[in-house]
Design goal:
seven-stranded mixed β-sheet, about 450 residues, FAD/NAD(P)-binding domain, globular, five-stranded parallel β-sheet, Enolase-like, domain 1, alpha/beta
Length: about 450
């Protein structure tokens, strides 16, 4: 008889857990994955995928207005939130089914139950059943956190935002990161009065300063209000169901409060202490370069490790784990030069070092920018301007960072990220013939 029930038992069927399960099974391992909610995890069920669908829906608000300048006569047009909401949720259900099929078709056993670690090689399932595994992989992701203030339970998080019965007339969004700015753009386009209340002094800390300042400027022009240095003090529910938010010495009346104040690793109640798995001060599982925890038989990938909270990173970590442990093909994830995007209105994206980071690390840098109106915006009579920025090592001419804001910025940035990752020089961009007319051509015309 086998020493263990499974070669690998995965807790959490999100992006990282699904990839690790599938690849480990393809390498011949006997694999089971436990998921207490829905297969697909944060990205598919309550994160980047449904949110991107809302972003698409929100863009039509301006597209319909702009269409008149392009000769289209659109009368009697109105927005129906419930139609978009239900279509999005239905597509999420479809994707969940595809993820389930992917696992089962690769021979992975899917267990719809909560799993708790009871030792280095043992897991307890929801109904008291205990199973054993040679290796255990924790891929439970992260969870939205709420500020510790009176009445915080009256607010919602991004998890619940996809299920709202209607678009609120007024909404306060707490936070200044990508989730806050993305939902601000979405609800603003759907007609809500949006206020971002941030405890800090800036939005999107860590992004290039010029790019994030441009987003702030455009967002304010679109009618989004910002309150900075405003930590939450308390939230009070009024007799008519509305809320009064007390933050930074100010009071804000609203119909909905959305907390987008960060995400914390989802490790509470997992029983990791029974196996000697150490956590950091934020509850993240401490892992080495091979995603191994302080217990030799327990690994962790994705947001639960708090290394880089991005879906593509979790997928790569899951793949590297499975190839290394079960495929005899050891490799490690390279965390250098990871591109990222904010699907705001307009979107912004970046890869590599910001200007400030480059100056601190390299000393002497050159920057090139293009500040322009997209052709579509010109004809539409829209004053909104795009901004592209390239950061170059002045000593080697190597491009060390590209940052942009404007229509389709994430789509353009993905290809540009290859050039930055490959270490190409500014001269290589200059030597490339422009694709005209396009917004992307600005990257090879920077002077």
């Amino acid at each position: 008889m086998a020493e263990y029930d499974y070669d690998l038992f995965v807790i959490g069927a999100g992006s990282g857990g699904v990839r690790a399960s599938r690849i480990a099974a393809a390498h011949g391992a006997k694999v089971a994955v436990a998921e207490e909610y829905r297969v697909g995890g944060t990205c598919v069920i309550r994160g980047c995928v449904p949110k991107k669908m809302l972003v698409y829906g929100a863009h039509f608000a301006e597209d319909i207005i702009d269409a008149k300048r392009f000769g289209w006569e659109i009368d009697g047009c109105r927005f129906n939130w419930s139609t978009l909401r239900d279509n999005v949720l239905n597509d999420v259900k479809r994707l969940e089914g595809l993820y389930n099929n992917t696992l089962t078709s690769h021979g992975v056993e899917v267990i719809h139950a909560r799993a708790i670690v009871t030792g280095p090689h043992s897991v307890s399932l929801g109904k008291g059943q205990e199973v054993t595994a040679k290796y255990i992989l924790i891929a439970t992701g992260a969870w939205p956190q709420r500020p510790e203030c009176e009445g915080a339970e009256l607010g919602i998080t991004s998890n619940e935002a996809f299920h709202l019965p209607e678009v609120p007339r007024r909404i306060v969004i707490a936070g200044g990161g990508y989730i806050a700015n993305e939902f601000a753009g979405i609800f603003n386009q759907f007609g809500a009065e949006v206020t971002i209340a941030n405890r800090g002094a800036t939005i999107l800390r860590g992004y290039d300063e010029q790019i994030r300042d441009r987003l702030l400027q455009i967002s304010m022009t679109k009618g989004i209000q910002f309150i900075f240095n405003a930590p939450f003090e308390k939230v009070v529910k009024n007799g008519d169901g509305s809320l009064t938010v007390h933050a930074g010495g100010k009071t804000i009346e609203t119909d909905c409060l959305l907390f987008a104040t960060g995400r914390v690793p989802h490790t509470r109640g997992l029983g990791l202490e029974t196996a000697g798995v150490e956590l950091d001060d934020q509850g993240a599982i401490k892992v080495d370069e091979d995603s191994k925890s302080t217990c030799d038989s327990i690994y962790a990938v994705g947001d639960v490790t708090n290394r880089v909270q991005l879906t593509p990173v979790a997928i790569r970590e899951g793949q590297a784990f499975a190839d290394t442990v079960f495929g005899n093909k050891p490799w490690r994830v390279d965390y250098n030069c990871i591109p990222s995007a904010v699907f705001s209105h307009p979107p912004m994206a970046g890869v590599g070092m910001t200007e400030a980071q480059a100056k601190n690390k390299l000393g002497t840098v050159r920057t090139y920018t293009s500040d322009f109106r997209a052709m579509k915006n010109v004809l539409a009579g829209r004053e909104e301007r795009s901004l592209y920025k390239m950061v170059v090592d002045a000593t080697t001419d190597q491009v060390v960072g590209i940052h942009m804001i404007g229509p389709d910025a994430p789509e353009i940035l993905q290809v540009a990220a290859v050039a930055v990752k490959a270490g190409l020089t500014k001269q290589a961009f200059d030597d490339t013939v422009a694709l005209h007319p396009s917004m992307a051509e600005e990257l090879v015309l920077l002077k």
